[in-house]
Design brief:
The protein has about 180 residues and is of the alpha+beta class. Helix content is about 45%, strand content about 30%. Strand 8 and strand 9 form a beta hairpin. The longest helix has 19 residues.
């Protein structure tokens, strides 16, 4: 138990938060979910100027774990990702149609060690959300007969996002000189 606890603590601090375009995070999440889980994944378009400050590795682990549980335990065939900016954060939603779940189930999924495919991870969804100084909750959209998990994530500082965009633009210029 001590080794597991130490391993989880190391994982919590091992990966730094880095600036990432929201569109890139969604694309990576769709690929990862479809590779590991027995369900399809899709993403709504995100604003091209939406930049996040995230630990993409652990965030992809959390999304894949949640999608896998939805597919395995609730026979969900399709999950959809949605990303939008609020005043102070970004909202990342994992949506599905079909069965809802109890609050106890949601709390369990949030606090139990994650499983990604056949691999067990020492971190929990709550650990990942706390690493991002964010929040996590479950909601139902009764009109659409769908449900979703929402994570609040930090936005990248505007100057940092501009610097990262310049680097990406510079890489494109090198690959495609005029």
């Amino acid at each position: 138990q001590a080794l597991s606890r130490d391993s989880a603590q190391t994982m919590k601090t091992r990966w730094p938060l880095e600036d990432m375009r929201g569109e890139d995070l969604l694309a990576a999440a769709v690929r990862r979910i479809e590779t590991v889980c027995v369900c399809r994944a899709a993403a709504d378009a995100a604003a091209p100027d939406l930049w996040l400050s995230v630990d993409s590795y652990s965030l992809l682990q959390a999304l894949t774990s949640l999608a896998g549980r939805l597919a395995d335990e609730h026979d969900v065939k399709l999950v959809r990702l949605r990303l939008a900016r609020t005043d102070t954060h970004a909202q990342l939603d994992l949506l599905w149609q079909g069965p809802s779940m109890s609050t106890e189930t949601v709390i369990g999924w949030e606090t139990e060690p994650m499983c990604v495919g056949a691999e067990s991870v020492a971190l929990t969804v709550r650990d990942v959300v706390q690493r991002h100084d964010g929040e996590f909750w479950f909601e139902r959209e009764r009109v659409r007969h769908s449900s979703f998990f929402r994570m609040l994530l930090p936005l990248a500082a505007p100057s940092e996002a501009l610097e990262a965009a310049a680097v990406l633009r510079g890489m494109t210029d090198v690959k495609n000189p005029s």
